[in-house]
Amino acid sequence: MSFRHIYWLLLTILHLVALPYLVLLSLKQRYKNSVKARFLGFSNPKPKDSDVWFHACSLGETAALSPLIEYFADKKLLITTTTETGFEKAKSYNVTSRYLPFETLLWMWAPKTKVLVVMEAELWLLLFSIAKSRGAKTLLINARISNRSVEKYKKFSWLYRYIFACIDEVYAQSSIDKERLESLGATNVKVSGNIKLAQIPKVSRTLDKPNDLVITAASTHKGEEEAIIEAYLRFGRGKLILVPRHPERFESVSKMMQKIANKNGKTFERFSQVKTLESDMILVDVMGELNNIYKITDLVVLGGSFEPIGGHNPLEPLYFGCRIVSGEHVFNQKLLFDAMENVHFSTLSKLDIAFEKALASKSATLKQECDIESIINSISKGIK
Q1: End-to-end CA distance of the chain
Q2: How far apart are alpha carbons 228 and 51 in whole angstroms?
């Protein structure tokens, strides 16, 4: 019996033991679609064979695939993801999109493809092994191993050697990532930079910019919103647009914003209920509007960075010429921030001071580029 068969057998036992918990998890709004599709096999039919199969984890990684999706738009494409936000983004490309089933289900589900392209750190043994055994060229792109994760990877280096044996080419974000990947058994590793730098965000519609300074707090998390609003009130001018990261929090954030607005003599409205952005404080309680909002924004406060969450993609507001203020917890986005200049970092208590400094300086800009051509050429050769 080969290692991958033993691996599959052990995972199957684990999968069966975890089934009661997975059923309960599928009842939660945030996970119901992804858990049912990935672990329980509902509403996730086997796709047809493809020329290129792209796999990414969540929203940011799926969005970063856009230059490749556009370049190979005339080919038969498949996109798989693991999160619900990633899946919604995948559907927007108008190509075949699915949730990636848990590895125990991949034997029966995985279609044939000419090229498998996997983003960043989605190192699933059976995903690569099955694709390779069926004749696919396998690529790991935008590969990285963060400072926080490197020791965890080393503990399972024996497993990653099996995985990298099934990967033909690896495109790393940096020379440090290249060294770390090679220490785990990766071969044929090239440094291509971060392909998130190659994407140019698009708007789906044009909003009328208010005749006032616009401050947008983007992708915020619990523990950040109230302090950001307090900083805005201390700052004392402009309009505040707040965009929570998770839709299930819209109602609680709305109640909190309405209470603060009433107490401080400010007007408040929900974006879903208005056609203009004339109120002092506005909650964006719909999905897919963030780029449209960025286009009319002067100053962006990036959420997920004032709490130890790791930060969110800073490139989208950069491309729209916004001034950017971020918290200091950006460990998940460090390479992107390293590629930028004129970004202002602050704590929540000094956020109003950071607003002043950011508005008095130049917009954020890029100081690094990305070599996406080498990835495109490799995929093209695999399709032929």
Answers
A1: 34
A2: 46
Residue 209 lies in a domain: no
Q: How many CB atoms lie within 10 A of CB 135?
A: 9
Q: Rg for the chain (alpha carbons), in Å?
A: 22
Residue range 241-270: mean pLDDT, rounded: 96
Distance CA 338, CA 66 (A): 22
In a shared domain, residues 252 and 105? no
Residues of the domain holding 146: 3-193+371-383
pLDDT at 28 (0 to 100): 87
Does the pLDDT of residue 156 top 90, yes or no? yes
Contact 344, 323 (CB under 8 A): yes
Over the stretch 171-227, which tens digit does the pLDDT of each residue have? Answer: 999 999 999 999 999 999 999 998 988 877 889 999 999 999 999 999 999 999 999
Q: List the beta bridge partners of residue 78.
A: 53, 96
Question: Exposure of 310 by Cβ count < 10 A (0-12 exposed, 13-18 middle, 19+ buried)?
Answer: middle
Element at 80 (helix H, strand E): strand 77-81
Instruction: Let me know whether 165 and 18 are in one domain.
Output: yes
User: In total, how many domains does the chain have?
Assistant: 2
Q: What is the pTM of this model?
A: 0.69
- Sign of the alpha-carbon torsion through 370, 56, 295, 364: negative
Are 8 and 107 a contacting pair, CB within 8 Å?
Answer: yes
